[in-house]
Amino acid sequence: MLPDTDTRRLVLASGRGAVGRCRAFARDALARWDWPQAGEGERGEVARDVLLVVSELVTNAAQHADGPIELSLTRSAVGVRVEVADCSSEPPVLRRGGDPVLPGGHGLRVVDLLSWSWGSRPHEHGKTVWSEIAAPPAVLRPPG
C-alpha cells in the first residue's frame, strides 16, 4: 500500500531543456504512483492535465523569472500538487480578457482551468507557484 503522501523533487541547475526534463520527471512520478498514463483513455486525461500544468508553470518560470530552480510533485489520497520554484518575487498574474487567438498570455488560464486550486507563495529566494489537480477515479484512495 502506498503512503498517504509522497513527494518527488527535481532540482534544476539550468533552464535549458527544463520543460522536457520536467515533463519526463512528472511522467515517471505518475507511473511510479500507478496513475493512468496519458493516452490510456479517459482516465489518462488527468495525467495529460498534470503534464500540461507542469509545462505551463515551468515555461512561465523560464519566461518571467530567469528559469525554474525546482519542480516538486506531491501525491496525496485525493490528487497531486505541482510546485515550481523560481528566483522572482513577482507573483503570477492571471490575465482576464485578451484575444484567445493570439499567442502568449494563456498559461495561467490553462492552469486555472485544470486545477481545483492554484496560487503562489514567497520563499527566501523568490516564489513557488503551485497547482492542485484531482486524481482520476481509478487512483483515489480513502485517507488513512
From TrEMBL:
Residues 19-130 form the Histidine kinase/HSP90-like ATPase domain. Coiled coil: none annotated. Keywords: Kinase, Serine/threonine-protein kinase, Transferase. The keyword Kinase applies. One of its GO terms (molecular function) is protein serine/threonine kinase activity. Pfam families: HATPase_c_2 (PF13581). The keyword Kinase applies. This is ATPase. It comes from Kitasatospora indigofera.
